[in-house]
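@channel sequence for tomorrow's demo:
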Amino acid sequence: MPALRRYARALTRNADRADDLVQDCLERAISRRGLFRPKGTVRAWLFTILVNLHRNGLRADRRRGEPVPVEMLPDPAVPAPQPGHLALAEVARAIDTLPLEQKEALLLIALEGLAYQEAATILGIPPGTLMSRLSRARAALRTLTGTPAEPHLRTVK
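structure tokens (generated this afternoon):
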């Protein structure tokens, strides 16, 4: 459950929505436990449910729109307490600008530390597609944050 919660928080960037998403995921898994087929792990099945619920929620949000609370707007007059917070906030904002499929792939690999095959199974895509999305996400993050690729982290062509 901590891994589901961590992934949900990274996807939604909102603790309350993440908790609701995890709760909905677990409720769905329990109510449909008869549909589980042991082709993979229960963990992968739960992550797949969570991803699908998140995607459905995003579609619903686009249809109705989502208000932004005034408290959530940054106050430009107050500087960040530490430079590390600025860098972290910059990366978080950059991740938020990624297309959903790239964001999902990046978070499953970088945040959850899943193997490529497991992440591909969760997202319902071939491993090559996952690696392509991951590569594009990393390249976009480097561009958005102005960070050059480290020689040992460059993508091999």
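heads up for whoever presents: Residues 1-71 form a domain with the Rna Polymerase Sigma Factor; Chain: A fold (CATH 1.10.1740).
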